[in-house]
Structures are given as structure tokens and as C-alpha cells.
Amino acid sequence: MTLAEFEHIASGLRMKLLSLSLTYFASLSEQRNEAEDVVQDVLLKLWSERERLDEIENIESWAVTIAKNMCVSRLRWLSSHSTVRIADYEIAADGGYTSHAVEAQECANMLRALFGALPKNTRKIMWLRTVKELSLDEIAVLTGRPKTSVKSTLSMARRMMFDKLKEME
Question: Which segment of 33-47, 76-90, 118-132 scores lowest on mean pLDDT?
Fold first, then answer.
């Protein structure tokens, strides 16, 4: 399948998948972001399976099923993980942030610095694993690297971040 053929299929699916995903995340404040992430993930999955899309009888139905499953998985994950957002902290009467907000901001800045210090390819693999929560097999397919290479890259990235964190103390 060529890129042009894939783009034609993707453009036809994008709005349907977004509409479906928005209904799943209707109760969330980050509804649009979550829905767009699911659409992006579904299209990424379709792209990774592009060689066998010709074998699939109804690509739209297949993509909708994938989107539904991703939405349900994401909702389960969100319900079991608490997230900390800077915007959720109160602002002190003098207009400054409370100590919790300052600590959270410092932590977020430190994580950004640690993540940003990683080499580009290592950062991409780490992002796919920690943010997108892809399996090692999925990352291997997306990056074209063996699973063992992905695993060692993640291990190396964690070690690099840990060592950098120790240097910051």
C-alpha cells in the first residue's frame, strides 16, 4: 500500500473515529485530547499493518473496533491512575503558587530536562513505552528494531536518567 492510498483511507476514517472517541471521553475535561490521541493511535496501528490491509474485508469496521478497544483501555487506565496537573493546584491569595504547585512544577521541569537529555531515538522509544504505553513488541514493529534492542534501549535510558538525576542532587 502506498502512502497516498493510506492517506486516502485515513482521511475517510479520521472524523468517524474522532466522533466515536469523543463519545467515550465525554465526561473528561481533556475529552478532545484523549479522543485525538486514540485516533492517532488507531491510524498508527493501521499504518503498521498496511501490508495486510488488503486482506481485511472491511477496514472501517476493523478501525472502529480498534478505536473502541483503545477507548475502553484508556478509560480503565485513567480510572486506576491518578494524575497530577499543575492547573489543579490552588493559587495563594498573593497570586503565587502554593508549595504543592511549586514542587509539582519543579518535578515536571526536572523530568522534562531528564527526558530531553536522552538521544533522539532513545527518547522516542522511551516516549512510546512510558507515555503511549505500547508493548515492547509494538515498539519493535513501529521502530523496525528487534525487541531485544528496544528492551536494552529502555534499560539504558532509565539508567541515563537515573545517573543524571543523581548528578542534579
Answer: 76-90
